[in-house]
Amino acid sequence: MNTMQATVFHGVNDIRVDTVPRPTAGPGEAVIRITATTICGTDLHIVRGEYPVKPGLIIGHEPVGVIEELGAGVTGYRVGERVLVGAITPCGQCRACLSGQSSQCGHGSGCEAMGGWRFGNTIDGAQAEYLLVPFAQANLAKIPDEVTDEQVVLLADIASTGFGGAESAGIKIGDAVVIFAQGPIGLCATVGAKLMGATMIIAVDGDESRLEMARRMGADEVINYRECDAVAKVLKLTGGGADVAIEALGTQGTFEQCLRCLRPGGTLSSLGVYSGKLEIPYEAYAAGLGDHRIVSTLCPGGKERMRRLINVVQSGRFDPTMLVTHRFPLADIKQGYELFGSRADGVLKILITP
Amino acid sequence: MNTMQATVFHGVNDIRVDTVPRPTAGPGEAVIRITATTICGTDLHIVRGEYPVKPGLIIGHEPVGVIEELGAGVTGYRVGERVLVGAITPCGQCRACLSGQSSQCGHGSGCEAMGGWRFGNTIDGAQAEYLLVPFAQANLAKIPDEVTDEQVVLLADIASTGFGGAESAGIKIGDAVVIFAQGPIGLCATVGAKLMGATMIIAVDGDESRLEMARRMGADEVINYRECDAVAKVLKLTGGGADVAIEALGTQGTFEQCLRCLRPGGTLSSLGVYSGKLEIPYEAYAAGLGDHRIVSTLCPGGKERMRRLINVVQSGRFDPTMLVTHRFPLADIKQGYELFGSRADGVLKILITP
Amino acid sequence: MNTMQATVFHGVNDIRVDTVPRPTAGPGEAVIRITATTICGTDLHIVRGEYPVKPGLIIGHEPVGVIEELGAGVTGYRVGERVLVGAITPCGQCRACLSGQSSQCGHGSGCEAMGGWRFGNTIDGAQAEYLLVPFAQANLAKIPDEVTDEQVVLLADIASTGFGGAESAGIKIGDAVVIFAQGPIGLCATVGAKLMGATMIIAVDGDESRLEMARRMGADEVINYRECDAVAKVLKLTGGGADVAIEALGTQGTFEQCLRCLRPGGTLSSLGVYSGKLEIPYEAYAAGLGDHRIVSTLCPGGKERMRRLINVVQSGRFDPTMLVTHRFPLADIKQGYELFGSRADGVLKILITP
Amino acid sequence: MNTMQATVFHGVNDIRVDTVPRPTAGPGEAVIRITATTICGTDLHIVRGEYPVKPGLIIGHEPVGVIEELGAGVTGYRVGERVLVGAITPCGQCRACLSGQSSQCGHGSGCEAMGGWRFGNTIDGAQAEYLLVPFAQANLAKIPDEVTDEQVVLLADIASTGFGGAESAGIKIGDAVVIFAQGPIGLCATVGAKLMGATMIIAVDGDESRLEMARRMGADEVINYRECDAVAKVLKLTGGGADVAIEALGTQGTFEQCLRCLRPGGTLSSLGVYSGKLEIPYEAYAAGLGDHRIVSTLCPGGKERMRRLINVVQSGRFDPTMLVTHRFPLADIKQGYELFGSRADGVLKILITP
Asked: Residue B22 is inside which H or E element, if any?
């Protein structure tokens, strides 16, 4: 009754589905019963020890569920309502949030790098039967009856991030946009570019099945970088350079190729998580005189963001379920991690249901 | 009569004031008789062979003068009018110009890195008695009677560039801004930050006289990087990071320190010209998750830009003559180059008068 | 040989297809042989005497054709190339153009209301066999071989205007947008809203066939204002108000309803041409405290704008030929005007071919 | 002990300083002991019955004070700290707030016109000894020791509103800006224009002492509309129209003159509160074809906004105490209202101290 099943990080390459205490809601908080979640590339980094979290932490940051308990002061909601919560949970009331940069939320202080990313990072996460949601007033997005849990679970992180990469770049009607890497986030960036009116969308990857999915998601052209010089091909297709290049992998190679694909005055929109050093090839950067912009985007969160993304799905503009290739119950989540980590069997996203 | 004196690049470390043919104006062009010009750091790069131009080229790109001849089709001007011409001369009619990125002007083609920089780069420049101005309709800015040549000659490049660094960063009322390097462009960036409403302006340099000038230009705080850890001091003064950091030197060190000075979500505005590799310290970049923006700006040009900058001077908001430390006639320009290159005698900008 | 057929305005309700001299190209100009054009609502206003032009003027402002002659100084083009020219022909070199507001082009002066609209207004227009194009370097947009004349002729004005209404409003992914009136421009505004990522697009009109076309163009909901209270329905569909309301008719009624449909902080984007007084219902305006924005947009022109719009068509995002309901040869253009003025036979746009 | 003195609205033209219960702080709330407040033009509207509030309400919305009590969940503050609270108190967590339009805060619902204005409107206000602050986490701005209460009390409303008018207009370096009416808000708009880099600031009023103050606040030119045709003079001074016109009175006359002062493509920024009908003179509006923008701004609030405004004062950019012309203790506030309403004795702002 007061316990639940949850995916607990015990140490590098050691996660287990444990029985742990169920959370309860303090003032301003809510508890939701998880009905759908998924595994993210960032979770893999955590499990592999590439991104450090404390042992004992429940991981996962993409929650869909039903309100189980509402803490004092949370208004406008009822127990039993279906809700989507973003991967990032801004407080709405700190300096960063009030400055419109809520992903860098620094509740209680000013502004903190990645401060809005709490689930499965600094507090218990979503790969569990129940989830404690902080700042619930700002973060519970109601799901309309016509929309299923599966349709919205990918909005919490990958759609919000991918679209965010398109939005931060300021894509305009008629833009030429190239997206490097067509994993889940890159595919969502491709969708985002289409939603914003880009008319030459070029998807680059080395995996034909991902390029095929990119076409279905709206790419006008696809490039398999194993088969040609991707930069040269983009320069040719765009007649001198893309307006926007979106980096969706997190490597020096893709970052650099993005910059080389740009026209002078173009924008590199970076979504990847980098490790090691990151170099700007200065000649591709016109030695600093090319009026280039390099923007990076951490997944936008909060209930208004989620409301808008739900609208995108509800309007039929985007069907995220196309990206769900596999399903596992929470009890078997370790198998899910193995499959996701192996990239076998054409896996894109895995649906986890408690 | 048909000849003039001009500063000609003959080869590395070899410039001479030669007698050369005077230019004449073709359709859409104008010839101006130069009354004031100056030497720019970029000119030094050229003379030293660090930026290649063709031998035989007249160098210099900061022209103030009097209209001597108007080519066919140039309307609204009269011979004898005093004009300022920007260092960058956009055509106004190519793809880049019509997209609002006229510094990357690609007249006759699409868009070309630095394409708008022609004077002393791809066509003859301003360190001469006469100058041929291309796309004159878009580039001749009339100087009001109340304003002297000396007051506006620094607008052509350094003020336009420095202010541009503040503008590209999107400085807002109440921002904290740090500017690394207080040479002429950095000083103008300091002025630009003040003009846009920054309320904590921090100037960094290693030269006390430049820091003193920074104070006079509007810096609220100055930091001599030789005497303390500049990044640590900026983080302390700003309570966690500047909203904007402006790089005005063009080195890995200043670029990197700029990034380290930023709050999450902050903007690095780059004005420097880089050589060699340029690295993003990924941990200061929050591994790509800090919502940082890195923007670079090439000097904005065109007569409307110059008109606005003249207004800034005319309104008394900014007195560029404070930056003029030395004067030479054109005949002695080589001495000017030597002094400017040596950084001796507190030199900031040198006025050249034919 | 030196004459041509052209639609000449002789006086109110008196246009005739006359034989007139063929234009020749001066410096910076071009002559194109018209292959397709159309009739605009503004042309009707002219013919009816509601918008004054000088007798003797050739009317029409939506030209597609083949380059017949290039004036001195126009580079990068060849005689025989197919081109689209926008209804608005900015010079690219005046204060307004250099400020990014080229529709208000004031060549030779500063900035002039509607100064960029020249064809069929201040100079001879496009309903003729040949057309003189001013500022050709800035205004000739090449048409790719794969795209037909008919596919692009509606881009010159109605698509550029309609999309412009969506762009000026700053539509974002997930916005709710209502468009009042679904004539050709309103339909293009509907397309523009879709292109920019609006996910609840509501089209309002009183004509069922236009509402049907609105659905085909991307409207999620349509409202026949004759059958219900349009404002009430929009408020209900949007849960409290649209983010953006686009006015595409030019009447007090539609303007006012737009404002009443907005959420606080929303944007009214006005495309209509108004006559008589225009009132802001102050209570719908929250007495000035609602953070509303009211923006108006004159058709953006210039070759870069046209290039982007051609890309929209070429990418298959938008098929303007769906709006072409009738065709007439130039010789029979008066019949076209009668039909277009009568709104009979489901007429939307009429293709005119010399 | 549990009571306090407060300015209570009893009915039209009937306010009294009554003894009422002292508030206590619930979860997320705070109580501050007021040390300084002021009377606003909006308060006059309330007293005169022009803006309806409920009898029994304590009025006033410009609070400076000391934290007396912190409700559950408010973190990062201590009792005894000096704070400024904005006139508008956004929750930070509703749809409007999360969309960056926090003045239209609709806590518990979506978005509500003027929803963020609570003090002295929908909840008890600041002209009292103690004040209950809702959403304290988002609204308590700490005051540095170096800054006095008197220096910041005008930031809560008039500076935030006046600067907001400049900000919403998007003023750029070199803009020409005209501000109609130089009451406290208009004067702050003048300051805002200066802070953002306008270089031709024209202040219009009919009161010479206010025009004199406008000059001290940064106006380059002042126009007494009683002595000349203000529109004609602005058109002459700006060479064809201002880039931005700020309306700071709330009448048809000033609104209309603002529009007539604009260049095509210019922006009218409206700060006034209008009653009765508001008309757009359509010919000054270029019949809808002038690319005009009309923006309205409700005072921005929240602690981050106040923090920035405090920085403006602390940096010496703006000295609001110049606008304080009179002082009254709370007990004599009725005399203050009489003086303020009469506009006698050169009154601009009145400091009230409990």
From this structure: none
